[in-house]
Amino acid sequence: MSLGQQLAPHLPFLRRYGRALTGSQSEGDRYVRAALEAIVAAPEEFPRDVDPRLGLYRTFQAIWSSTHPAEDAAREEASGDQEAIARARLARIAPLSRQALLLTAMEGFTNEDTAYLIDTSEEEVESLVAEALREIEAQTRSRVMIIEDEPLIAMDLETIVRDLGHDVTGVAVTRDEAVALAMEDRPGLVLADIQLADDSSGIDAVKDILAEFNVPVIFITAFPERLLTGERPEPTFLITKPFQRSTVKAAISQALFFDQSTVPTI
């Protein structure tokens, strides 16, 4: 099997990681393309002593670490541009902390694998994850709407949201309910399942809501690769079912980082 064939199944998930890390479809995909170009240009340098997925993420990490700007954070935040604000916020947290959180909580890597990916120890990974959660939770507070037709999952999501210090505006189980609830009480974040109770679509509900006002959205699906096809539109934030509570917490924290309404007054 060629290297390309070995890496292909992992690309949708690397794209998810890149987008979560940058908060942008275009920016996340740009880093993924850069990693793939580096592999094509020097295939002999690709790590062959580890699982292909680890090698792929390791290459991505090298690209990110070498190009991610950390300076001028204050100036960027003062500019008022949404992506500049996000970069400024992210710069307040050590990049390794942010990466450790997403690699473990969202991408499902073990502490051992994460330590390999970011060149540190397993003990340091634990410390970095705890640090990132403290910093992120201290900077983001919002009101969250949940679109989910499974009562137990909805209750679990509501508990997670409240544990993070956010309020829940309500739970909708159909497209029409979701739109009505959003119009009645505008949320600062939406958690949306894909398949809803009346066979309507959470994607359609989100499109209707976004036609009225901008709000960050996290989609919840058992098949994230089906939403990362390379066609537009695609979601920036995805949670895979069945999910871990830590995954939801990481995704919520990252999504709110890129919401201008939660930026503190300067």
Task: Give a written overview of the molecule.
The chain is an alpha/beta fold and 266 residues long. It has two domains: 3-138, Up-down Bundle (Butyryl-CoA Dehydrogenase, subunit A, domain 3); 140-262, Response regulator (Rossmann fold, 3-Layer(aba) Sandwich). It contains 13 helices and five strands. It has helices at 3-7, 11-22, 25-41, 52-67, 73-79, 82-91, 95-106, 111-118, 122-139, 151-163, 175-184, 202-210, 245-257, and strands at 143-147, 167-172, 189-193, 217-221, 237-240. Helix 9 packs across helix 13. The protein is globular, with a radius of gyration of 18 Å.
Summarize the structure.
The protein is α/β, with parallel strands linked by helices. 56% of the residues lie in helices and 9% in strands.
Which terms summarize this structure?
single chain, 266 residues, alpha/beta, Butyryl-CoA Dehydrogenase, subunit A, domain 3, Rossmann fold, 2 domains, five-stranded parallel sheet, 13 helices, 56% helix, 9% strand, globular, disordered C terminus
Task: Walk me through the topology.
Layout: H1 3-7, H2 11-22, H3 25-41, H4 52-67, H5 73-79, H6 82-91, H7 95-106, H8 111-118, H9 122-139, E1 143-147, H10 151-163, E2 167-172, H11 175-184, E3 189-193, H12 202-210, E4 217-221, E5 237-240, H13 245-257
Parallel strand pairs: 1-2, 1-3, 3-4, 4-5
Helix pairs in contact: 2-3, 3-4, 4-8, 5-6, 7-8, 7-9, 7-13, 8-9, 9-13, 10-13, 11-12
